[in-house]
Amino acid sequence: MKRREFLLGSGAAVSALGLGGFALASGPQELVVQPARFALREQVTNGMVSLSADAPPPALYGKQGEVMRLPVRNTLPAYTSMHWHGLRIPNDMDGVPYLTQMPIGEGETFDYAFTPPDAGTYWYHPHCMTMEQMAHGLTGIMVIAEAEDPGFDSEQIINLRDFRLDDADAFLPAYTPRGAARAGTFGNVHTVNWLQAPVYDHTAGGLVRLRVVNTDTTRIYKLNLDGAEARIIAWDGHPVEIEVPMPSAQDPLLVGPGQRVDFAVKMPEREGQTVNLMAKLPGQPLRAMAGLRSVGASVSRDMRELRPLPFNPVARPDLANAEVHEFVFGWTPEGGVPNNGFCGSLGYNFRSINRLPWPGDAAQDVGPLATLEMGRSYVLRLRNESPNLHPIHLHGLAFVPIKSSLRTLPPLMTDTMLLLKDEVVEIALVADNPGDWAFHCHVIEHQKTGLTGFIRVV
Ligand code: C2O
Ligand code: CU
Ligand code: CU
User: Fold this and answer.
1) Is the CB of 393 under 6 A from ligand 1?
2) 3-class SS at 14?
3) In this prediction, what percent of the chain has a pLDDT beyond 90?
4) Is the CB–ligand 1 distance for residue 383 below 6 Å?
5) Stretch 81-96: mean pLDDT
6) Which ligand is nearest to the CA of 453?
7) Which domains does the chain have, with CATH numbers?
8) Which residue's C-alpha comes closest to atom 1 of ligand 1?
9) Spatial separation of the C-alpha atoms in residues 73 and 83, rounded to whole Å
10) Is the pTM of the predicted complex or chain greater than 0.90?
11) CA-258 nearest atom, ligand 1
12) CB 3.0 to 4.6 Å from 226: which of 37, 182, 276, 392, for a disulfide?
C-alpha cells in the first residue's frame, strides 16, 4: 500500500471516512467516533467502534514541526476522549479525561490541535471508555514524517491487534475477571489493519518502511521478519542510534501494547516473492501476520541509499545530577472500585503504584505520584513486584532505559517500557514538558484496575 492511499484528505480517505461531499476547504476534517460493522472473520461483526461506518480507523499523517488539527466528534451514547500516544505535545491536548480535559459526550466535539515535535510512528486511541472502545476497534496509527524524506519507495503500516469473537463472529466480553487479575484477557482473532494475514504489494527490489504498531489491549507480540534483508531503524517512534540486532524466530522481538518498531525492508528482486512478518503466539506454530509481496520489474535499490533518520529533538538527561524516584508496581490489599466518572470501570481495583490503587479518573483531590521540576534530569526506578509483565507508559515525555536487574537494555528512546516479571529498570529523562502526565500500564485491564497514576512537571 502506497503512502497516499492512506493520506487523510486524499480522495480515498474521504470516502473511507464516509464523508463524501465533505468540503475540505471548510476546515480540518472531523474524526467522527461512531459505530461500525466489518468482516473481521467470515461474517460481519457488529458493534465495532471506528471513525467510519465500515472501515478501520485511518492512519493519520502529519509532519514534524507542522500543526495538526484533529477535531474529534463523538456520536456514541458513551463518552470518549482521544489520546495521541507518544507525541510530546501540550498537556491540554493529551486527551486524558478529568486530568487534562472533560470527557467528550454524545454530540460534542473536542478540537485537538498540536504540533508534533518528533517524527516517527505513533498512534491514537481513546482514554475514556478505553477498554470497551479499544477492544471494539478504536485504535489507529499516526505517522509523523521527517522534515526531509529519507528515501523509501513506499511504506506499509501494520496495526497489530486481536479481537475476541464467538463462533458467530459477534464480540465476546472484552475481558474476564480471571484475565484482569492475571496477564489480561487475550483475543482469539489476530489481525493486521483489521484483516487476517493480509498481503500487500510493493515494488520488487524497492525499499519499504514497515511501521509496526501493537495497539492491542493485552498481547505482548513476539515478532520476527522472514524473507528479506531488513534492519530496525526506529523504536517507539524514535530513530535508533545504535545497531539493533534483527530478531529471529528463535530470538523474537518483544513488542508490548503501545510499542512500535520501524523496519527498513529491501523487497526481494523476484516478482511474487514474499516477506513475512511472523509472530509466535502461545501454543501455535509461527504464523505470518502480514506479507509484503514483490511486484513488477525490480528497481534494485540498495539499503545504503537510505538517508539515516535524523534524531528527534529529545533532551539528554544529565545522569550525574539526576534525582531518583521509585515506583513500585504491585498489588493492593485495599481494592475498592475506582471512580472513573463517565469513563468506564471494570468494577474492581487490585493493582497499585507505590501501594496506591488509582482512585479513578474522576476521583477528587488525587495528587501526583511525583512532582518533577521543569528542565531537571530524573531517574525513575521502576520495580515490578507482580508476576505479570507490564508495558509501563508515560505520557508527554520521552525517556531512555539505563539499567535493568535482569538484562542488558539497549538505550533506545521510548515512551513505553516493558517490565519483565520481578524486573527493576531505571529510566532517565529530562522533565521538559509541563503538566500532569498519565503514567500507567498499557495492558488495559491492568490500567483500569489500579495500575495508573500521574506525574506532574512544574
Ligand atoms: Cu497509549 Cu495513556 O496511553
Ligand atoms: Cu500515551
Ligand atoms: Cu500491566
Assistant:
1) yes
2) helix
3) 92
4) no
5) 98
6) 1
7) 3-147 (2.60.40.420), 159-302 (2.60.40.420), 319-457 (2.60.40.420)
8) 85
9) 14
10) yes
11) 1
12) 276
Q: Report d(CA 343, CA 176) in Å as an integer.
A: 19
pLDDT band at 74 (very low <50, low <70, confident <90, very high): very high
- In 39-163, which ranges are continuous DSSP H helix? 130-135
CA 161 and chain centroid, separation: 11
Q: Is the dihedral of CA 91, 353, 256, 151 positive or negative?
A: positive
Confirm if 63 and 120 have CB atoms less than 8 A apart: no
Ligand 1 atom with the shortest distance to the CA of 438? 2
**What's the pLDDT score for residue 26?**
57
Query: Is pLDDT above 70 for 108?
Result: yes
The response to whether residue 211 sits with its C-beta less than 6 Å from ligand 1 reads: no
CA angle (42 as vertex; 40, 45 as ends), nearest 5: 50
DSSP 194-252: TBSS-EEEEETT-EEEEEEEE--SS--EEEEEESSEEEEEEETTEEPSSPPPPP-SSSP
Banded pLDDT at 232 (limits 50, 70, 90): very high
Residue 252 has pLDDT above 60, yes or no: yes
> pLDDT tens digit string along 10-31?
333 333 333 333 434 456 899 9
Q: How far is residue 456's CA from residue 386's CA, in Å, rounded to a whole number?
A: 25
> CA quadruple 356, 443, 91, 261: dihedral positive or negative?
positive
**How large a percentage of the chain has pLDDT more than 70?**
94
Q: How far is the CA of 440 from the centre of ligand 3 (A)?
A: 8
Query: Is 258 touching ligand 1 by the criterion CB < 6 Å?
Result: yes
Grid cell 458467530 is found at 168
If you take atom 3 of ligand 1, which residue's CA is the nearest one?
85
What are the backbone angles phi and psi of residue 324, rounded to the nearest 5°?
-100, 135
How far is residue 2's CA from residue 110's CA, in Å, rounded to a whole number?
A: 31
Q: Which of 81, 134, 88 is nearest to 109 (CA)?
A: 81
- Residue 6 pLDDT: 33
